[in-house]
Amino acid sequence: MSKSHNNNNLVVLAGNSNLQLFKEICAHLNVPEGKTLVTKFPEGETHVQIQQNIRGRDVFIVQSTCTPPNDHLMELLILIDAARRASASRITAVLPFFGYARQDRKDKPRVPITAKLVANLVTVSGADRVLAMDLHAGQIQGFFDIPVDHLYSINVLSGYFRKKKLKNLVVVTPDVGGLKMARAYAKVLGAPFAIVDKRRESDRKTQVMNIVGEVKGQNVLLVDDLISTGGSLVEAAQALKKEGALDVYAAVVHAVLADPAIERIKNSNLKELVVTNSIPIPKKRQISKIKVLSVASLLAEAIMRIHSNESVSSLFARVGVEA
């Protein structure tokens, strides 16, 4: 990270969603942790106070809208409003995980496009720009009427597997929608890729149909942007083992891990699930099969580049991902 720029005008604040990641980002940037008070009134309303002078400062607000998503979203919106009313010169919403991203289109009659609604709320609350990571769909960038810098964690996750030096590796996407992501990982790791062709029966249940590509006698790396209840990933791992795959690993960016995900992973054919810390995993839900990698340095580098008006897209050049 460049050390030549003055950090005195840079302020990093956070809500309660991911305080450990916030602390790591501040440490990488070598800036003090911004002081905020984020609590609730007795009836449950969110109360926010920024406890330092930010007038004329370049403010970055780190907040993953993860469980509980509504509380953390309100914290984000109120923090942005507080920063705007405190006369910050520029406000950037840093969203390691952007909740509601799966509701990005009308796939049924009379349903909302909630990703667009949330994007509107972030904009109207006073954010000048957004820094997001591995959005569920790239086109969500267009839902915001302000500039969006979109980061990818592929270099962090693929680097971990490069160090493992797995022989006969094949990258697999658990559904056709993740084909672009699988191609990117296959390119970085120098491996072929395959597809698990599945039919989704409901929001909670999927049925694996067949596997397109050769996995017999191969070590497999399943890649996806998000794991919620774990059904798709666990079923894909089971299907791959039935087809003669050796060890099955998974690299997933956002570890939502809603019930019954932990139990499913524990009892699955997965040898290891590698995730980022875009969403914190409580200690009581941590198991030996889950490995967490930090994206603090990636986010800190992007924050410094935005603060210094430098290119963020050059962060993607070395991983073969289009910005």
Q: What kind of sheet is the major sheet?
A: 7 strands, mixed
**Strand tally:** 14
Structural class: alpha/beta
Task: Flag low-confidence runs.
Answer: 318-323
Topology pattern, helix = H, strand = E: EHEEEHEHEEHEHEEEHEHEEH
Number of helices: 8
Distance from N terminus to C terminus (CA atoms, Å) equals: 20 Å
Strand neighbour order, sheet with most strands: 10-9-8-11-12-13-14
Rg from alpha-carbon coordinates: 20 Å
Task: Estimate percent helicity.
Answer: 25-40%
Strand content: 25-35%
What sort of overall outline do the alpha carbons produce when their principal axes are compared?
globular
Mean pLDDT: 93
Task: Give a verbal description of the structure.
This protein has 323 residues and is of the alpha/beta class. 28% of the residues lie in helices and 26% in strands. The chain has a 7-stranded mixed beta sheet, sandwiched between helices. The C terminus is likely disordered.
